[in-house]
Amino acid sequence: MMIRKVVVFSVVLLFISSIHGQSSVPGGLNASLTPPSLNAKITIGFNYDLLRPPTDVSFDFAKGYVGINIPFEQSGLVPKATADNIWSQMSKQLSQDPTSGGTFQPQASAQQYANMTIRVDVPMLGGVATFSNIQNVYLNYMNVLGNTNIMMGYDTTMKSNGSTQNIALKMLGAVNVPIDATLGWETMTFGYAYKANKNLIMAINIHRHIFQIDMLAKMDADILGNVKVNQSADNSGSAAAGIGGLGSGSLSLEKDINYPHQSLYGEASGHYSAEAWSYSLGLELWRFTLTSRFGIDTKAHGTFKADYRLPTFIDKQTFQISPDIQDPQKLISSNLLSDLQQGKTDSVIYSTDEDAKFKLPSGHTISFDVIREKVRLSYTKIFGDIEMYHAHAESLSTGGTKRSVDLDVGITVDNIIMLNVNLYSAFLNMGIFTMDIRINDQKHILGNAFTGSMKQLKWGDAAMLPIMNLGAALGAKTQLGFELDLLPLPAFKTGIIYHF
Q1: How far apart are CA 252 and CA 167, in angstroms?
Q2: Fewer beta carbons below 10 Å: N end or C end of the chain?
Q3: For residue 134, is pLDDT > 60?
Q4: Would the pLDDT of 27 be above 60?
């Protein structure tokens, strides 16, 4: 569950820029609980150099390039109503805030993360040999789960089972679970392009991909309080039953609630890494260019472990206060009072070293130069999804085992339509693409969130998102390049181009 939360939050927050927390009080009761008012932050670095066609090389002279993205804070990427709707769709597969049955909604912000590109083109053997090392994607997600400020208190009288109960509860404390997750993807490319004549260029690139996922969480909890229950028989003369599973003789109870942080602990950590090879082919014939990028299906080796102890009235998956303790009727009709009196805790120990699965799809691009080397139209079709999957085996009391899925996420990117305009040393790229998200069996999470007037921005069941970036290069033999990525993720990129 911890793995799934971390990755799913990370994926969705790529597109949600401002989501506001909720708080609520159980209706009709003099109880108050402040659920988490959190600030989740995700930093994203996506390098558009990943999409460079294999035939786009310099045949006239050797050329070297070093570039870096400069991060921008991102807000307003998606309208708030749509962002809230996306999160509502997500919550069907994620934990809920048990105090209200509402959606667990952190506040979020996103920004690009600095990443680098190194690229060299060298004419040789009648063609051009290329080398590049690109930091394609860097993603970092930080948040704090739990209840950062627990303040509960009620004093009420109820009648049930021929008796009258006065219940008073006070509780103060916090349950903080800060989490930090990072995902990185880096690619080293070796390629060769051959120009048969001015109308025919052929190219092949071989790519070595390195993926890394790191996760870390550490719990800090401290809860203090007092609970008091007095029970008396009504005038009917019937005997009063015992309180909260404590036996028929327990007609009065007063107990301090004391869960110091020394008795509560918790941490989780994981690391997965994978290495895979893929290739891409390019063919430029007259004004047409065909680029085929072939996907990968690999395993990420690593481990994940979690070990934590919490009071029995804290949910072990959401780290939130149980709704039962907030309801006096449920408090005295369950074993919660007995657990509070004995200071009971629950422990969770989880460990797995089973491999995770990671897939990248194949994509094919066809483009046409409306004006040769000036204006180009292109369309890209993607076959398959970006998929992340992890499951582990659990032992059953019958002696058998079952597979439990920790993570099953799919991201669909498809139908990329681009217009590229080059004028002297400046360029402008505009276009659209479709995107959607799947979690387990729930499909079209992003597309289903585009409702109302936003329905017009859908292609089939998927959402349509814009692309726009522009830039220029200044200089002759040594050039200083500028690139401004406006949509979908803003970034300012600069670099040095040197012609040998």
Answers
A1: 10
A2: C
A3: yes
A4: no
In angstroms, the CA 474 to CA 206 distance is: 31
Per-residue pLDDT tens digits for 355-400: 999 899 999 999 999 999 899 999 999 999 988 888 877 655 566 6
Give the pairing type, strands 458-459 and 96-97. unpaired
- For the chain, the structural domain boundaries read 2-499
Q: How many CA atoms lie within 13 A of 324 on its CB side?
A: 16
Q: Which two tokens stand for residue 174?
A: 């916090």
Of all residues in the chain, the percent with pLDDT exceeding 70 is 74
Spatial distance between the Cα atoms of 133 and 66, rounded to a whole number of angstroms? 10
Name the token pair of 402.
Answer: 């079952």
Q: What is the mean pLDDT of residues 12-19?
A: 34
